[in-house]
Amino acid sequence: RATVLLSRCLLKMVKGDIIVPEEILNFCCNGLQGSTSPPRAQEPGEREEAPGAMASPSPARNPTEVQMSQLVLPCHTNHRSELSTGQLLKWIDTAACLSAERHAGCPCVTASMDDIYFEHTISVGQVVNIKAKVNRAFNSSMEVGIQVSYEDLCSGKHCSICKAYATFVAQGPLGSKVRLKPLTPQTEEEKIEYSIAAERRRMRLVHKDTLKDLLARSPQETELETRDGSGAVPAERTRVESVELVLPPHANHQGNTFGGQIMAWMENVATIAASRLCHAHPTLRAIEMFHFRGPSQVGDRLVLKAIVNNAFKNRWVPVPGVPIPPSPWLSAPSSLLSGSMEVGVSAEAYGQEMSVSCRHINSAFMTFVVLDQEGHPLPLPMVAPEPGDGERRYREASARKKIRLDRKYIVSCKQTEVPLSVPWDQSNKVYLSYNNVSALKMLVAKANWALAREKEKVRMYTLEEDKFLSFRIEISVCIPASRAFSLLSNLRRRHEWDSHYVSAELVQKVDDDDMIYHVVSQKLRHENKPQDFVILASRRKPCSKGDPYVVAFRSVTLPTHPARAEFTRGETVCSGFCIWPESEEMSKVAYYNQATPGYLNYVTANVAGLSSDICSTFEACEKFLLKNKEDLISRLQDF
Length: 639
Prior knowledge:
Elements: H1 2-15, H2 22-30, E1 66-71, H3 85-104, E2 108-113, E3 116-117, E4 127-137, E5 141-151, E6 158-170, H4 188-205, H5 207-217, E7 233-234, E8 240-245, H6 259-278, E9 283-287, E10 290-291, E11 301-315, E12 337-350, E13 359-369, E14 383-384, H7 389-411, E15 422-423, H8 429-444, E16 450-455, E17 458-464, E18 469-477, H9 481-488, E19 501-509, E20 514-523, E21 530-540, E22 549-557, E23 568-569, E24 575-581, E25 587-594, H10 597-607, H11 613-628, H12 632-637
Parallel strand pairs: 7-14, 15-22, 21-23
Antiparallel strand pairs: 1-4, 2-6, 2-10, 3-9, 4-5, 5-6, 8-11, 9-13, 11-12, 12-13, 16-17, 17-18, 18-25, 19-20, 20-21, 21-22, 22-24, 24-25
Pfam family, one: 4HBT
Protein name: ACO11 thioesterase
GO molecular function, one term: carboxylic ester hydrolase activity
């Protein structure tokens, strides 16, 4: 405003033939920042602003963060004027790769992509906003988190499309691996993603074993639904094969084919296969976690193959005022069934001589639906698989659907949406273990912990959120962190220091890192019988330097241990220990608990200073650790 007023005065002075001093001219021409006063001395460590930079300081930004905005043009869309999913995958891969290379400082290649669920379609004229940043760097690989949303320029509306996690590998000269520098998270959100990235990595590594284990325990003879054989479409009719020649525009700056370009070609043939089953235009809803097996270069011939593996039925829930969607394949009573289908697609690379053996590049599984004009999924015809490999793919598709649902509703959901006790099943053990550990790590990474009490060496902190009151108890103990981890992860010894525990029976040893216990505790003051819990205990050693040892607890339900009349069944949604080594012989031991309603009165009494039970229990824990730190028998048992 001052500049505008000065400019108006200058104009009047010029019109009145008044001589304007040079200092005023310079001031008006250069603006308020062009003052002729002596320049201010730069403070130590202060960064010099670039010309034209905004005067107001902007918040610190993650150095690996990449933002991409793309206007959806007709050339990017399909016949419905909606953004092609293949084009979106190319943009996602490009943004993620640029973020990875910012951190690595060298070329990076896409190694894998986790499940992607597409929540909405994007129309022509809208803007796609992509934000990618490195969550964590391991030895030579790193996890990049990608958030995708769209923006309607006319209405100003913003809407989330999907969230994805990609793994990239840094490559040196001649494809050699590069050891990455560690990443230091700054914000609370970055600390949470950094911490949970180790759990996601663990889940990726056991993905294949999870599928094999589920198939091994499933009946070998899987009933094939055919609706009397009349409505089933032979899977062979949906088979698609297409070839693409990799040209320079398809390759990145390293000469390798864009991972996103390969995914776009795969999406194209998968869409054709799905269309051959339903004789309609399908919509891609999800892409299963996949891995790139090897690189492809300019000049390669990529052969892409796709086939519908299975079609699934889902009960369609009628909405008042919304008519039942018509089905060209089903009779009226069955038209309350909507459907989805899984399409398997593979990419193989050949050189100029097609007779030479191929190189397997990638395999992926994509889930499609067919939507009516109101956006409701329509029923689909069933698939009749071909004998042999077709029946194997049919069974595997059913197993993948179960795993996909486990990952989506156990791993992806918010902690406030997870029921206190989740049914334990051997097939979802990986995801329940992930949820158990990640919930604790999310609690640990919260930023608003407040010191509530301090009694000698014991410190008690609280965290108040919308739906939960959580507390943290910590103490420094003269014991190696690995030793404290071994002692505290064994619930069968908890009664030796925690007076609330009566007994803990090991019900099931899931693996070396996950155990299920039946715990019996003392009577609560307002109860006339003791409590019991069925608890999943998951433990993790540090993934890299600076990580804590973690022991996480959460309630599960087991058919073999239902609630019994002599006990009050208790539940815990999130609790456990984190142990940080402070030196070779010193450790910081912290216990976290997200208080459930039945436990809340006990916690608030301790926070308010009306009781010292929690502090006394933790002092007993310190004595237990000191007493047993030289116990060689327990050291060898290690859990």
